[in-house]
Amino acid sequence: MLRILADESVDRQVVDRLRTEGHDVAYVAEFAPGTDIVCMCDRMNYVADTAHADAYERQVGRRGVLFTLEQAKRFVADTAANRMWRYDWPPARVVPQRIIAGIKALGVDVSNWGG
């Protein structure tokens, strides 16, 4: 089972199908219609491959880093297990240097960020 956040651009039939297959889908159109998904997912964008990443970076004018699927799973595991489902969890302090060090420890090339 996957836990999935689907924004309003995702067709209702897709959400229904995912739920039928046993996935836990949080659908923005149901709990927060009109939410700006760009603000919700401010700095993490998912791309299909490096060509898609390059095209996206040219469009938005900033460079990112590429995770393998396994690296991405490890990166979000604690948040997915806790913060996304425990709404009483207190806000965490964001320390960019610690986050970048953690990403680098996963084996991700962070040279686009000067690291």
Helix content: 40-55%
Number of helices, where a helix is a run of at least 4 consecutive DSSP H or I residues = 6
| Total tally of structural domains | 2
Strand order of the largest sheet: 1-2
Radius of gyration: 16 Å
SS class: mainly alpha
Low-pLDDT residue intervals, each spanning 5 or more residues: none
Instruction: Tell me the β content.
Output: 5-15%
SSE ordering:
EHEHHHHH
Mean pLDDT: 77
So what's the overall shape?
Answer: globular
Number of strands: 2
The main pleated sheet reads as:
2 strands, parallel
- First-to-last CA distance: 35 Å
Describe the overall structure:
With 115 residues, the chain is mainly alpha-helical. It folds into 2 domains: 42 residues, no CATH class; 71 residues, no CATH class. It contains 6 helices and 2 strands, in the order βαβααααα. A two-stranded parallel sheet has the order 1-2.
